[in-house]
Structures are given as structure tokens and as C-alpha cells.
Amino acid sequence: MTKGLKATVFAVLAAALYAINVPLSKLLLEHAAPTMMAAFLYLGAGIGLFILGRIQKASGRGASAEPLTKADLPYTVGMVVLDIIAPILLMLGIERTSSANVSLLNNFEIVATSLIALFIFKEVISKRTRLAIVLVTAASAILSFEGAGSFEFNTGSLLVLGAATCWGLENNCTKMISGKSSVQIVTIKGCFSGLGSLVVAFAVGESLPATKYIAFILLLGFVAYGLSINFYIMAQKDLGAAKTSAYYSVAPFLGVGFSMALLGEAPGAQFYIALAIMALSTVIMVKDTLSTGE
User: Fold this and answer.
1) Measuring CA to CA, which residue among 231, 236, 210, 280 is closest to residue 18?
2) I need a labelling partner for 105 at 20 to 30 A (CA). Which of 127, 135, 146, 156 fits?
3) pTM, whole model, 2 decimals?
4) Measuring CA to CA, how many Å separate 53 from each of 142, 189, 221, 230, 251?
């Protein structure tokens, strides 16, 4: 297996693990407030990866990973701060616009990641990758669209676009340190962003969920955020921010599939249209990865 193909597997696996978060979080949100949910998901990721890192170090498998240094501090701080701001903007946006609008606009993250990678970080993006990005974005839009009139440009829309842009910039900050220990990166990202979200949760008056639900959320955070982000960072090492983001953008599509299986949700015709477009974009991405020898 080539480095590029291996990285592709990591990117798709990252998307699949994150997609599990969608239906399970919907169930857990019946027992936990949204900001508390976000806080413990991130803390689960950070704590889980910290324990995983200790296990790897004890077994000698994590010794080759290069740790973060002072030179990485600006990108590390930026990563953490953006991971606190983005969910807050998204939460405010959800309060001010429809869920269909939020779902549609949230897919702007892939566009933001790619444009920031291209214009700020000078990352080379091939024509086929650009085409795949357009196709995946179109498929995600079709999957999210609930009918005429659901897309309205308002204050809520601006907030959601702001959240997506923050995550796009955060993806590129993470790319700049992706050559370092992915376990250490996710541990820092999860713990500090989780604590930041916890402070916000208490500030807005949210209360702690029951202990058993905290445990469930922490476990979900470890799998859907910790392991997912870990694989995402590993993919970025060889694919770059834009291409990894393109692969990762199948997460909403997979989330719908998991929702069908776990929650019994029935898809409409747009689901199968999105499936065809997503499959085409994946073929283009894989072909581009193999042809460039990554």
C-alpha cells in the first residue's frame, strides 16, 4: 500500500468514526445540554488520547513520534482557540436559523479549508481535487436540503459561515504541526478546548448531566473525536489539508447512513442522488492521489 493510499484510508476512517457521533449525539442530547455535550466530547477525546499515548509509550510504539516544540506554539494555540470559538458561533447560528440552513452552510468548512490552504498556506491543489471538492460540496448540499425556502441568508447564516471558516483555519493550523505526535496534538486539542467549552457551558448556566451520561459522552468523544482527529492528522501528513478535508467531507453522508441504521430514518430521493455524486468524487480523489504518487 502506497503512502497516499494509506493516508486516504486514514482520512475515510476518520470520517466514519466522526459520523458515528451524529446519531449517538442526537440520542445523548436528550440528557445533556448542547455546550456541556461539546465540552465532554472534547474532554473524552483529550483524556482518551492521553491514556492511549501513555500505553504506546509504555509499549515502545510511540517513541518515534516527534513532540511539539516552542516553534509550534502559535499553531497550537490557534488550533485550541479556534476549536472553542467555532462551536460557540455554530450554537449561536443554530438559535437564529433553521436546521436545514445550518446543515447546508456547515459544509462550507471544506471550501474554507481549501481556500485558506491555497491562498494563505500556498498549498498546491490539483484541478481534479478542486473538481472533487465541488462535487462533494454539491452532494452534501443535496443531502442537507429540505425544500425551497430553507436557505435564507440571515444573521444565523453569517454565524454558521463564521464557524465553518474557523474550522477551515483550524484544519490548516493543525496541518502545520501534523508532522508531530498526533496523539499529543489531539490530547492538547481535546483537553484545552474541552475545558474552554466547559467554562462557557457554566457561564451560560448549563448544568452537569447525570454521571452515567457523562461517561457515555466521554467514551463517544474518545472514539468520534479523539481517534477520528488522530487519523485525520495522520492523513494530513501525506495528503495535505485540502485533500484530507475533501475525503473527510463524506462524514455527513456517512452520518445519514448511520442514522438510517441506528435511528430508522428513511432517506428521500436526494440521498441516492448524493450517493452517486459522492461516489464519483471519491473515484476522482483516489485517482488523483495514486497518479501523483502520494
Assistant:
1) 231
2) 127
3) 0.75
4) 40, 14, 16, 11, 26
Find the angle CA(271)-CA(272)-CA(274) to the nearest 5 degrees. 65
Q: How far is residue 61's CA from residue 53's CA, in Å, rounded to a whole number?
A: 9
Mean residue pLDDT of the chain comes to 81
- The separation between the first and the last C-alpha atoms of the chain, rounded to the nearest angstrom, is 11
* pLDDT of res. 294: 46
By the 8 A CB rule, do 268 and 31 touch?
no
DSSP labels, 72-141: GHHHHHHHHHHHHHHHHHHHHHHHHS-HHHHHHHHTHHHHHHHHHHHHTS-----HHHHHHHHHHHHHHH
| CA–CA distance, 202 with 228 (Å, rounded to integer) | 27
Amino acid present at 95: E
Is the Cβ–Cβ distance between 28 and 213 less than 8 Å? yes
DSSP E strand boundaries for the chain = none
Phi (first) and psi of residue 120, to 5 degrees: -100, -45
Location of C-alpha cell 430521493: 269
Instruction: Give the total residue count for the chain.
Output: 294
Q: How far is CA 26 from CA 19, 58, 115, 255, in A?
A: 12, 37, 31, 11
Cell (9 digits) for 137:
460540496
d(CA 290, CA 41): 35
Give me the pLDDT at residue 25, please.
Answer: 83
Gap between the Cα atoms of 35 and 203, Å rounded? 10
Percent pLDDT > 70 in the chain is: 85
Q: Do 19 and 251 contact (CB within 8 A), yes or no? A: yes
How many whole angstroms separate alpha carbon 234 and alpha carbon 217? 24
